[in-house]
Amino acid sequence: MALTHDVPPRLDDLVPTAHRIGQAIESVIEGKGDVIRLTLTVMLAEGHLLIEDVPGVGKTMLAKALARSIDCTVRRVQFTPDLLPSDITGVSAYNQQTRDFEFKPGPVFANIVVGDEINRASPKTQSALLECMEEHQVTVDGVTYPLESPFMVIATQNPIEMEGTYPLPEAQRDRFTARIAMGYPEPTAELEMLDVHGGTSPLDKLQAVATTAEVTALIAAVRAVYVSHPVKRYAIDLVTATRRSPDLRLGASPRSTLQLVRAARAHAALQGRDYVIPDDLQDLAVPVLAHRLLPSIEAQSQRRLPEQVMADLLHRVPVPEARAR
């Protein structure tokens, strides 16, 4: 059925702008097109991204490449066991000249915050990001400070089996819109990496291809992408299925439903559509929902990962017919 409604303003500009950003990142990260597309989807959905994988596969490089592709403020935080919450949010310090306390902002006051190896810090320090990620603000000594817009946290972490790591609390994982794994590169991509990265880092040559104003406008355009009632109902059915599954002792939260629909809007817009179809939700269900789920003891004994459980649920939940407005 042909669409009868008008395309939201600036949505036509989204695909070429996102393509430019994606190409810039791919000049640094070879052979990871799917990972880069999901990263752009999370950014345009006003979300936060958790990149989990073993050391040395390019997690931090991906985060830095996205940050440099956009002409915006970027701060990097290296999470360590001795890092304090105030090292992230900022601190009130006494100024002897004014004889008063003044707030010194922490690295979280930036458009893109890169948190490297977030699970090497203590849970207390990890929780310093909870208010920042959910409410886009920081409260220090009873005073609330708004964060810049757009605001995105890109955190990397090593698997919890790695020595010296702390598992992220459920509340912290739930703040991340999606979790992705980089995976090892293909031999051809790794060979190209040796040629490209052998002398100098390609990050040194990476130039910004989009401005903060452009990204803000694109985010506003994504908000206008249409989601029909049957598609919204399908999103709720998927999340409800995780809460009722005997393989899970913790299902997805209501926040995850909202973030799934937001990500689906961005996913549709990146494909040039101003409406969401069930395929958008299916493509995003595993990266958006799986990291929030806790398997049951029986599932753990059978070594069934939450990603596998979510994939099974996608086959069981009835899919509505796609409808245009």
TrEMBL record:
InterPro entries: ATPase_AAA-3, CbbQ/NirQ/NorQ/GpvN, ChlI/MoxR_AAA_lid, P-loop_NTPase. GO terms for molecular function: ATP binding; ATP hydrolysis activity. It comes from the Bacteria. Residues 48-177 form the ATPase AAA-3 domain. Gene3D superfamilies: Magnesium chelatase subunit I, C-Terminal domain (1.10.8.80), P-loop containing nucleotide triphosphate hydrolases (3.40.50.300). Residues 241-303 form the ChlI/MoxR AAA lid domain. Transmembrane segments: none annotated. Pfam families: AAA_3, AAA_lid_2. This is MoxR-like ATPase.
